[in-house]
Amino acid sequence: MTAVTDQDHTDHTDRADHTDHAAHPADHAEEAVSEGGSGEDGGGAPVEGGASGAVEVVETEGVVETEEVVEVEESVEGAHARVGDDSCGRTDSSGAWDDGLIARRVNETAGGEPVAVVEARGAGAPVAAPLAYDGALRSRLDALRELVGLSRTRLDSRTLSEAGRVLDEAAARRRLSGQHTVVAIAGATGSGKSQLFNALAGVTISETGVRRPTTAAPIACSWSDGSASLIERLGIPPRLRRRPLQSAEMEAQLRGLVLVDLPDHDSAAVQHREQVDRVLALVDAVIWVVDPEKYADAVLHERYLRPMAGHAEVMFVVLNQIDRLPGEATDQVLDDLRRLLDEDGIALGEYGEPGATVLALSALTGDGVGELREALGQFVAERGAPARRISADVDAAAWRLRPVYATGRRTGLSEEARDEFAVRLADAVGATAAGEAAERAWLRNANRACGTPWLRLWRWYQVRLEPVTGRLPLRAQAEEEATARQRVEQAVRTVADRASAGLPAPWAQAVREAAVRGSQGLPEALDELAARAGLPPGRPPRPGWWPAAVLAQASMTLLQIVGGLWLVGQIVGFMAPNLGVPVLLMVAGIIGGPLVEWSCRIAARGPARRYGMEAERRLREAAAGCGRARVLDPVAAELLRYREVREQYGRVLGVEAGVR
Amino acid sequence: MVTLDVRPQLLDALSALRDRVAAARFPLPLPGAPRARANRDELLAQLDDYLVPRLRQPEAPLLAVVGGSTGAGKSTLVNSLVGRRVSEAGVLRPTTRTPVLVCHPEDHHWFSGMRVLPDLTRVWVPQQDGGDDLLLPGEDPTRVLRVETADTLPPGLALLDAPDVDSLVADNRTLAAELICAADIWVMVTTAARYADAVPWHLLRTAKEYDATLVTVLDRVPHQVVSEVSRQYAALLTKAGLGDVPRFTVPELPESAWGGGLLPATAVAPLRTWLVHQAQDPASRQHTLARTARGVLDSLKARMPELAGAAAAQYAAALRLTAAVDGAYDSEHARVRGRLQAGAVLAGDALKRWRAFPLDCSAAELLDALVESLAALLLCAVTAADERVDEAWRREPAAGAPELTGRDPALETPEHRIGLAVRRWRRELEEYAEEEVRDLERSVAPDPEVIAALVATALLGGRRARTAGEGLAERLGAHGALRLRDRGGRLLTEHLDRVVHAERERRLAPLDALDVHPEPQAELIAALSVLQKER
């Protein structure tokens, strides 16, 4: 109870420093604490008054929360609420103010703990300083967060839940102590987890026995203070938190270690397995305890070791009960265990490479426990485990997300596919046929203009004989559905398929949807466009030689007439008989007329082709433009979004470049 | 009631049932399919390995299969029971990879043939060092049974050392389950460290379910804790409803496993006595055999309906898949007919050609454009139907079967097939037109190609091609034009139906190839009821 009064004291001073407004939350916190205390006194509620060991935990947390609230209030209130400027100045000068306070509190509550040790280890940093991730990991986490945010509209929440969990855990772990490493001892029932736990702690904390399964709930043991919130996160109630045997030498070695004894994962008691799964997701490192009888159990390898192969760096595999093995058999079994781990895909930390540490020991005789303690001490002193665990989690989450992000080949809309889309749209509006029709119509008109009058007369007669086909009434009625709907639909489908080829399913779906959305109203737009841009405006252009040709044709006809009249005049005796000249004139006219017509036709081919091409080009371009604006651009935007996400995913993987 | 006389009717009913079970297939990847497949295999194995041979030859020796977790000391136990090293024991797990059957030399003929465990190849020579070199090339190393003889074993009793039930090698696990199911007496071995493990308990529950003759051995118990551990174990067994199962405790001795040595005879004496008693006392033997056989027969009552249910689920899923295909193609078929009537073919290129006809466009060009446009319409309908099928199938877990997903795109495309069909229609239409023209008694008969183009336009152009019909009537006379249009229209419908039908069949072909029928369900149930009547 000394701890509680101690806190009351600080709270009072705080309250004195600040305005009463700011003191309200502090009041509440104090009430909560005192309630907990009274519950314990009365022996009432088992959760609140669970154990006296809980009091210091609750108290430390209470301080953190209260102080934070006060600080927020203070900054909002501004300068006028700041009565105790001198106290602020004091906390500011010590750097991170809350750290300083907590550090002070920890030193006070720790009681007999020598301060010198803290300072030597901390080197200026407070004991419970929150965990700091290094730049690479931080950027990967940021990228993952970004990725989840970008993908939320495209992927269902179930796919993203694992990534979300990793982010949450990373954030939660980050807020907690970076000076501590939480290590869980996991293993099959009867492998001696509790025995090892006790051997490491130096006292019998966890119950051991022949009764299977023995341990039913996780038990935590902390080698130094300030880890309460970490243990809280594991959901271990205060009555299951213990301290190791107090011995300075051991303490220095394993300082910062929080050891958690887990229930078994393979017994018939299902709730044990659930506990294990829950806690394993939260701890920084795991010691897998196996024994010579069970080291090859399928359940251990298939359910735990293989899925966690990426976490090899934060993994110890300990072969316990070597006292049951005769002589050289230990090495044999250890080798076999290494082989199995290798088959599971777990990197083994041999020859200084990063990976799982494999040790053989006997918790019963103490053989090899010293080595494990040493390895653990070094591991904990490095303080890299939480970050490495989070990093491995990110790896695993990213790997699991691979099918929804990564592609085996290059994606995107190729130039070829775009061109093909344009061609299909042009087909749908009938650009080729329109162009050809325009060309032929022009040619026909030219022929008619430059043709001999006799030929025209004959043609007119022919046309009068011919029954009229559908062209006249068709022209009159309003055009509807001039564009081939089926071709547009097919064109959109093809281009969507091309664009989404190779994309992961959700993104392919998004691309397809974008294309379909864009194609709504596309046929109508094309209808309108075809009516508008069908033919070049105005009268068809005529080449400069046109009047000359018409004149030549007319003069040829004139020659025929003149020659004919002349001949007629001679026949009736009106004129002097001279056969040569009029016959020559007439023959010239008769031959020259078709000659002029023929040469005109040859000469008109070029302009006609140009005219038809122009008509075709206009339709083609208009259709392509329409298609681009309505379909290709949204599709390209969707592809761009995917590419962005893909890059983000690459960043999550930790690959800066080389994203295919 | 099963007696131990040979009963031909029962055997007939049983082999009929066996054939039905063997014929059951679960090809669609439904949630329950892997389980159903495993159940089927297990049931089949049990019928072949145990029930049929046992009912056919009740006088065959008792087979006791020793099963348990890895490292429980099964091999050591078998060796100790036999009195010499027949099965390899060691510290490395899993130790036993090849099952070993030990019997009295007089009983050898019972096991050397394929009477029981017909799936396993017999190996005669005892293995010198690792059995691998004894195997014929290409043979599955786990599907091998080593048969050993030992005088020390009484006649009428055979012991089988099975691989681990929780082995890291998945094949070993299946084999172990299969072997245990073939036993007259199930000997379950567990240890002081393991007796609460989940996996062996599954097996114990199975034994209870099948009402097999079961005996459990608590092996490798350190002598300090014998009483406590065995009390705990008894409590667990009682809780699971297995309190009356004979329990034997074997202490952990220095000779235990780690040297591969034999336990002293005293350690395994009670178990040995019990086994020998079961084998040699006629009443006990009768009881033991009848109990296990009856248990398996009884279990059929639950297992067969389960299989039948899975078969029904398969059929239902196949029906759903087929219905999705039918629905998609039917609706697309209806849509394409509507579009045809509305004259959707006479659009785009074809419309432009028609407008230019006959001044600036020849009949052949018009016909080309129409045919191409018709092909585009059909292709669009077929791809749309395919897309709808894909969409519907994506929601069906059964559609994940590799046979259904792996369509070969390299084969001829629907575009190609539709183009073929449409061109054939054109050719036939041209023939019709020629026939009509030939029948005309006029000196200036119209060009058959023009007639063909006009009739195609009239058929495909809907309302907007009215003038094509008029032109046709002018050229052929009202009667001839009507006849030609009728014939052409019928031809068009026919070709359209044929194209859609062919595409639908193509889509359904892989599903049909999976051969999922409603019959297996009824047949399984019928076989079961025949068997029930015979008992």
Explain what you see:
Chain B: It comes from Streptomyces justiciae. The complex is a heterodimer of chains A (660) and B (535). Chain A is mainly alpha-helical. Chain A is 64% helix and 5% strand. In chain A, α14 links the parallel β6 and β7. In chain A, α7 packs antiparallel against α8, α16 runs antiparallel to α25 and α24 packs antiparallel against α25. The longest helix of chain A has 74 residues. Chain A is rod-shaped, with a radius of gyration of 45 Å. The N terminus and C terminus of chain A are likely disordered. Chain B is of the alpha/beta class. The N and C termini of chain B lie close together (6 Å). About 2% of the residues of chain B have low confidence. The chains are: A mainly alpha (660), B alpha/beta (535). At the A-B interface, α13, α14, α17, α18 and α20 of A face α6, α7, α10, α11 and α15 of B.
Taking all Cα atoms into account, the compactness measure Rg of chain A is 45 Å
Which series of helices and strands of chain B comes N to C?
HHEHEHEEEHEHEHEHHHHHHHHHH
The interface involving the most residues is between: A-B, 63 and 71 residues
> How many extended strands of chain A?
7
Shape of chain B: rod-shaped
Number of strands of chain B: 8
Kindly report the spatial arrangement of strands forming the biggest sheet of chain B.
3-4-2-5-1-6-7-8
How does the overall form of chain A come out from the CA principal axes?
Answer: rod-shaped
Sheet-strand content of chain A, in percent, reads 5-15%
The DSSP helix count of chain B reads 17
Biggest sheet record of chain B: 8 strands, mixed
Compute the average pLDDT of chain A. Answer: 74
Task: Give the neighbour order of strands across the main sheet of chain A.
Answer: 3-2-4-1-5-6-7
Residue ranges of chain B: pLDDT <50 for 5 or more in a row? 127-139
Pairing-aware structural class of the strands and helices of chain B? alpha/beta
